[in-house]
Specification:
There is one protein chain. The protein is α+β, with helices and mostly antiparallel strands. It has a single domain, classed as GIY-YIG endonuclease. It is 40% helix and 22% strand. Strands 2-1-3 form a three-stranded antiparallel beta sheet, with helices on both faces. Strand 1 and strand 2 form a beta hairpin. The longest helix is centred in the middle third of the chain and has 13 residues.
Length: 96
């Protein structure tokens, strides 16, 4: 069984946010941190993992990513601060 992750990266506390989905959270966040691709996260230095959730259903993960992308910024911040009030980088807690 495969696990899929929906995640939020930030440039800093209350900074620029990015919502993504992946089946390998450590690899994907590492790619963002290494700024390997010319993309939004590289341009705005968005590489701090501040929130993630997992599911066994790829469709559910894609749907949740879409939902979060359409949320108001204040809702995303509230979601982050519910489980990570200090906005610490969770990358190191997941084996990164």
């Amino acid at each position: 069984m495969r696990t899929y992750y929906v995640y939020i990266l930030a440039s800093k506390k209350n900074g620029t946010l990015y919502v993504g989905v992946t089946n390998d959270l450590v690899r994907r966040v590492r790619e963002h941190k290494q700024r390997e691709q010319d993309c939004f996260t590289k341009k705005y230095h968005v590489d701090t993992l501040v929130y993630f959730e997992d599911t066994d259903e790829v469709g559910a993960a894609i749907k949740r990513e879409s939902e979060l992308k359409n949320w108001r910024r204040s809702w995303k911040i509230a979601l982050i601060e519910k489980t990570n009030p200090s906005w610490k980088d969770l990358f190191f807690t997941i084996g990164g």
